Structure prediction request, 301 residues.
Amino acid sequence: MKGRVIISVLAAALAVLSCRNSSGKSEAFVRADNDPVTASVNPGVDPMEEIYRNFSSPLEIANLFQVTGVPFSPGYLASSLNPDEKTTSFRKALYLGILGADLGYLNMYEKTGTSIELLSSVKKIADGLNVGQFFDFETIKRISLNKSNLDSLLFLSVDSYSAMDEYLRKNNRSQLSSIMMVGIWIEAQYFATQVMKQYPGNLLRERIGEQKYFLEDLIRVINPYCDNDKEFSIVCSYLRDIASKYENVKISYSKGDPSSREKDGILVITQTEASIVDMTDDQLAEIIDMTGYVRNKLIAN
Prediction:
């Protein structure tokens, strides 16, 4: 299901425009619970696993850009990030997420030949976090240079990010996994909002509006670390600033007719559901502006 992929898929492909896990509206979007403000991520489930499952497929948003004729733009990339910068593990994890989204953006537009420098940056940063052994740089580089198989390229990138993420979380470094998640989300949100400025469309507008509840969940996940140090505190503050611009955005849901299909000889009936995003032009403009401000602050040297 498109709405149920882990962080590695997001890093390897284009963007993180969440359509929460429901069975309709392109594998739609639902809250983790009935109260999006006060309730926690589903009890009994690892919060990080829960939030990973509820990202949408990055291929969906990549398709959205391409189907609607949005051209590739190198100006969206975080080209100012320096992989050789002497910095903290926090910033390395943040950069790893941001550059992972950039790498996916390049790959989905088949700019594989120009992704080699970015691949090198990802490898350097991963090495700095002691997870570089999980990033299959040489194979990914070879496929990129040959432009031979986009599916294999995406799969290997997915697999590498998945292994890095799993290692961090299993070795008591979940705070770095969570900040990598923030990096992926903010870069993807930046892509979407910048495209919206230049190529406005109702479907992309809806996807941006749907970020309201996902962002609330992301804040819950990172919240335990907000008092760790100044770096975490600043990022938590930035996420809350973006969330404040969503405060009056309203999302409602309508059920459609059930659909049926045969799978492995069994009839599967799916209840469809569509979200309705009530967001004014002024609210959208504020979300776009705040997203751009936060993202550019995070990549500033």
